[in-house]
Amino acid sequence: MSNQSSSHSSSVVADDGNNQSPTKKAGAHSLAEILSQPECWRTCIEDLHQSKKLEQVSKLFGKAEEWLFIGCGSSYYLALSAAATMGALTGLRARAVPASEILLYPDQVLTATTNCVPVLISRSGRTSEVLKSAELLKSRSIPTLAISCAPGQRLEQLATNTILLPAADEQSTVMTRSFSSMLLTLQALAATLAGDTGFLNSISQLPAAAAITMKHLPSSIRDFVAVHDFADYVYLGQGPFYGLTCEGALKVTEMSVSYAQAFHTLEFRHGPKSVVGPETLLVFLLSETGYQAECDALEEMKSLGGTTIAITNQSDARIRAASDLVVELNLDIPELVRLAAYLFTGQLVGLYSGLKKGLDPDSPRNLSRAVVLNG
Asked: Across the beta sheet with 145-148, what order do the strands follow?
C-alpha cells in the first residue's frame, strides 16, 4: 500500500483489533470479523476438503446446463461474482438474480432450460424472499442448492442440498467474512465442477497470502478516512469485480449511513461523472484484464477533482499518480481467485467512516441480521 496524502494520526474509536478493552467498543465485532477473514477462509477450506462436500455437490449437479445464483442485498452481490466465476471456469451459462425477481417475475427468470441449478444464498438461512423463492422452486420440482452460515434453519429444509459454513457466521449485523467465505466456496465449487485443480490450489494459498495484505491495511484506511470528509462515495469495477463494487458501496451505506453508488467503471462516464468533485470518493477496483481502459477512467476522474482510492494487485506510476491512496494486494495467484481480497478495503472504509460519524457499525440503524417479512 502507498498513500499519496501526508500521514496523520486518527481519532477513530476502534484500533487495529489488538488493543481493545474488555468493554465492547463501537464496531468491535465488525472489525474483528473483517480482520479474521484469512483465518476464517482457511478453516472453511479445510472443512470443505475434509467433508468432501464440494465433490458431493458436483456429483449431484454435475450435469447441469445452467447455474442461477439467487440472493438479496449482499447475497445478491455475492451471486454476481459467483456467477461470473462459474461461467468463466465451466463455460456453462451462469446468471445472478435478486430473489424478488423470481417471486414477482418467475416466468422471465426461469427460462425454458430444464436442467438449471438454482443456488439459494442466505447467511442466516431465514431471509424471507430467499425462502419464498425456495418454496416456489420446490413447487415446480426444481432441485436446488443452498449455501448458508447457519445450520438448522428453514432454508436447509427446503433445499435439495446445502453447503454450510458455520465458521463464517458473524455477531454483527453487516456481512463481511460471511460474504467472502461464501464467495470463495462457490468459486471452489465452480473449480471442482470444471476439474480445475490449479484454481483450487490457488484458493488454498489465498488465506496466507491475504493475511499479509491485511496486516497494515486497517491503519492505512483508518488514517485516510480520518483526514477526509466525503459527501458521496462511488465504487467502480467491471466484469467479475462489479458485484464487489456493489458490495463496497453497500458497506459504506450500511455502516456509516452515507450515500454510495456502484457502477461499471466505464459506464460512470456516461452521466454519473457529473457528481465528481473533491468531496466525492471514487474507489476503483482495477483488474489486469481491463487495466488500460480502467486506468484511463481513473486518470480522468482524478483530473475532474475527485478523491481516489485504487485497489490493484500491483501498482505502477500511472496508478500512483492518479490515486490519493493505493491498496496493493501483491497476490501471486490468478485474478479470479483474488476477488475476495478486494473486499477488505470497502469493508474498512465503511467501518471507519461510521466510527468517524459516531455510529456503531455493528448495529446500523433500521437494519437486522436477516430480513424476515410478515406474511
From this structure: 93-98, 66-71, 116-121, 145-148, 161-164
SS (H, E, C) 175-226: CCHHHHHHHHHHHHHHHHHHCCHHHHHHHHHHHHHHHHHHCCHHHHHHHHHH
> Do 220 and 144 sit in the same domain of this protein?
no
Question: Do both 181 and 233 map to the same domain?
Answer: no
Domain boundary among 195, 229, 247: 195
Distance from the Cα of residue 174 to its chain's centroid: 12
- Cβ atoms of 230 and 281 within 8 Å: the answer is yes
Q: 316 in a domain, yes or no?
A: yes
| Domain match, 225 and 322 both | yes
Quote the domain boundaries for residue 8: 2-17+25-35+208-356
Nearest Cα neighbor of 312 from 294, 187, 6 is 294
What is the mean pLDDT, run by run of 10 residues, along the chain of 375 residues? 38 39 76 97 97 97 95 97 98 96 93 84 95 96 96 96 97 94 98 98 98 95 96 97 98 95 97 94 97 97 97 97 98 97 98 95 69 59
Q: Domain count of the chain?
A: 2
